[in-house]
Amino acid sequence: MSLDSPKEPAIELVGIDKKFGTVHANKNINLTVAKGSIHGIIGENGAGKSTLMSILYGFYQADHGEIRISGKPVTIRDSQAAIAAGIGMVHQHFMLVENFTVLENVMLGAEGGQLLAKGVASARKELKRLEDDYGLEVDPDSVIEELPVGSQQRVEILKALYRGAEILILDEPTGVLTPPEADHLFKVLRVLRDQGKTIILITHKLREIMAITDTVSVMRRGEMVATRKTAETTVEELAELMVGRRVLLRVEKGAANPGAVLMSVRNLTVRDSRGVTMVDNVSFDVRAGEIVGIAGVAGNGQSELLEAIAGIRKPSAGEIFIDGKPVAGVDPAGLRELGLAHIPEDRHHMGLVLKFEEYENSILGYHRDAKYGRGPFLDLDAMRRDAEEKIGKYDIRPPNPRLRTANFSGGNQQKIVVAREIERDPKMLIIGQPTRGVDIGAIEFIHKRIIEMRDAGKAVLLVSVELDEIRSLSDRILVMFAGKIVGEKSSEAGEQTLGLMMAGIAA
Amino acid sequence: MSTVSVPLPAWINYGLIPLLNLILAFFFSGLVVWAIGESPFEALQLLLIGALGRGEGIGFTLFYTTSFIFTGLSVAVAIHAGLFNIGSEGQAYLGGLGAALVALAMDRYVPWYVTMPFAVIGAALFGAACAAIPAWLQAKRGSHIVITTIMFNFIVSSLMNYMLVRLLIVPGKMAPETRTFLPGGQLPKLDWLIAMFGGKLGAAPLNFSFLIALIMCFLVWVLIWRTKLGYEMRTLGISPTAASYAGIRYSKIVMITMLISGGLAGMMALNPVMGASARLQIEFVGGAGFVGIAVSLMGRNHPAGIILAALLFGILYQGGAELSFDMPSITRDMIVVIQGMVILFAGALEYMLRPVIVRAYQQFTGK
Ligand SMILES: Nc1ncnc2c1ncn2[C@@H]1O[C@H](COP(=O)(O)OP(=O)(O)OP(=O)(O)O)[C@@H](O)[C@H]1O
Ligand SMILES: [Mg+2]
To answer: Regarding beta strands A476-481 and A484-490, do their DSSP bridges make them parallel or antiparallel, or are they unpaired?
Structure first.
């Protein structure tokens, strides 16, 4: 065999079709994934990537079509069948038992036999072997909730491998990781591939696609529109294939025109429920017409800072001023009345009630407004009309205000939150991770809106772990490390400098 | 696991699955009846005829249904805000005191329809008062509402014993109960309702509070799905973190919800106290508060479902009473077993059949 002859396929999907009511999520999809390769899948929010993978993993059944594993047709009724066929999935929201140890989680459901002791010993040995083989080091005896996200994800991978997975599906695995954690993950994935495992990687970050995949397939509106060898394509081509038009990968913005100070934070200290200091004596100002970015590795106090400013968390010391008025202790409803809008970093637990229909979420926090009903009553028609307007303006798909929010794809959920907060036309906007899990077209859109807010004279405070995002949007950058602001840079500061500051090495 | 996420059409979710659960419950009850040597079919027939056969039976069935609607609504309102109110029993009991005090004070002077609104308010206020302390403890101190509401059932029970034995008892009488209310303190029977269908109410105690219960169903529906308060309750019930993000105050919603829940439970007392016996008696609630938990669960916490589930339990209560009368080998305890089966299959094991049905549905639709 010559070197570049196609390897035998690990997975073939033939004519996969899936509808959810009127939404045609997968249209006659054909996909071949070579054994021992890393295959990327990209596509806009709602293109149908997660649906396709859910079909492969047995969460959904396709309406039509066939799945072949190593050439043999299989029916995958549920996740047990998927595991039996050698398919493992690393979910974006980890399915781990938080107060179990790593070992217990890995064994769970695969204990083998009635007596635990024997199983534990052999599981420990097997786990050790897997960790050594693939460079997946985690302490088998540490408790999940005490591990950083990156390690928790490694446990998910170990769990799949322990069950004999030959094929690993990762759906947006890097969304929650810090850059060093993501690098580590990619190292692991390369080792896995070199040992013959097959990997399917879904991500919105084209940089990651270029860095690690061998082949990449592009989905658009339920269809598989292209497959390319990664070495033979470019970021620009992929972006265009995904969106169907040229995309600005970096937003253009004019010079800022800062006005009066709208928001200031003075000596703010925030402790978490265990009494650990998360924000340590932080002070800064945000002016009208500027975007202040807070850079930092996740977990250095940014989330707590945002929550304190948004009135969700009580600061233990210090003051926050809005328009010169002290507001520490004012609740989120009161702050909204003062013109503060908040796009929270955790849309699943804060920004949205996933079980609500879309239109119910599009008023969350503003539901007392007379616009949505007189006196104590809600005016559902007004709510739905309002929701439809936002759906149109922000191109939220599917355009159905009656759909349960959980059934929207991740990026579209984010647009629901962004639309709600920006359309209020607030005076100040605080934003956490505005584009987590959002496709490049939507990133461009959201970034444009944020810059429009700035140009309209709003004060914008932006927290993101994406250094690129911070650098391309912010007019000033504050770097946070271990709860403190360790320095301020202009937006021209180099990635290197900022990276060192974020690691707490240089100021 | 995986079948959980498969969506099923509404007629399967709300029609077929509950029906199959009910059939299973009756099947196992039938086995029990058969095991003690009686014919299950005959028993079922007796039960249904007893509950629905004549106007009087229907009157009794709807009388029980009325009580269960109130307590079912009480439980459901709390569940929508994420609170599990186990105290409807005690709240209803104390509600009886509120209704009785109003009736005793007014029955001499005014006709029933003047007394009624005050009695509704009195019953609701006393029921709400009984829920207020557990609510406050949950809101401000984090004491778990399940524990505190259970404890209040006992406290109320002792308090009512004291009230009835020491204070409200008719001097010279043995029974711990108040005097009989005059017509101005009674709710009229609904003879005309049964007569509309050509039946006779007879001695059955079906009374005006049935209509109050139906009105409350409508009001609860409006509250939960058409008001801003209901929106805040549902937000808190589903996602406390989203509620705090939205500026929904936890302690405020917990307090209001529990007051409404306790008020609804309290109103249940109107039915037995002012509608049936025309006096306040000891232990008049008789477990209706606990049945309300099952009714709410079976009715998916929706007023329409609660009416149906309350009716089912009404049929079981009335039909069961007739059955044990006609078949002496089937004791009251056996009836409790049958009710337990319904709760087990239709409430607790509600989702047992779902995976099977999902498979069948997928086969059937060729997916
Ligand atoms: N259970 C469901 N019921 C109804 N519609 C659904 C359901 N699951 C997904 N959809 C719809 O199917 C389409 C495809 O969704 P999917 O989650 O596969 O997108 P995706 O490509 O993974 O997007 P993202 O990048 O945002 O995660 C979307 O329009 C979504 O709203
Ligand atoms: Mg997805």
So the answer is: antiparallel
